[in-house]
Sequence to fold (248 residues):
Amino acid sequence: MHARGLVHGDIKPGNIVVTPEGLATLADFGAAHRVGGAATLTPRRPAGYTPDYAAPEVVRGRPERASDVFSLAATLHHLVPGRPPRPDATAADADPYVLARRAARGEVELAADLGVLSEDQGPVSRRRADTVAPDRWPLDDDERLLLVVLGQRYLLYEEDPRPLSHSRGAEQLRYLRPEESWSERKVEYRIEAVRRRLHGTGFPHPLMHDTSAGRPSDDSLLHNLLKGLVESATLVPPDLDLVEQDGP
Fold:
């Protein structure tokens, strides 16, 4: 597979099948990438991954051959203690952004116990851990550039990311696209238009004011928008190239 320039991208226990002859083979190439590319073999945008086993560069959208070696090592680790090397990923209520951030930083917690031979079995095994399936939301080119500018800290998986202010976003957009006359008011208008369009479509976080629960700030709603777009892989780290490629 690697000799043919392909990276599987989602090696985990659930994607390894043993044949009747006892041969272990890889299954489910839905997240496979060509070496050196961010596009999958099927969808345009990068596909999903499994935080329990993903290499940092896979989460960042830059898979390489070594990514599969990392995921295979995480799978082999699972054979001993009965869990992947990221135990927090086993929690049903785990924050998807936090899981992605830990995976992007390569954080692992290696077990020192005897696994199934130990009295302490540790976290529940996730041999069928779910791939984070992309659920991408439609954005036009201008909206994508705007949201990448405002959400750079989210795409870098910072600890506690906050959006760039509208004024600073407008300033950077005027530098990137001087012919388009970006202003603070234009940024605010375009963000509100995206929030209104995605509201009520199943977006994972609130995008509009709920008067019955008090009025959240627009900054909080923009935070919700950016967090949901990164969690869903609508915005991915390679999109940061737009900020550089569009410069003079």
The longest strand covers residues 16-18. DSSP finds nine helices and four strands in the chain. The radius of gyration is 20 Å.
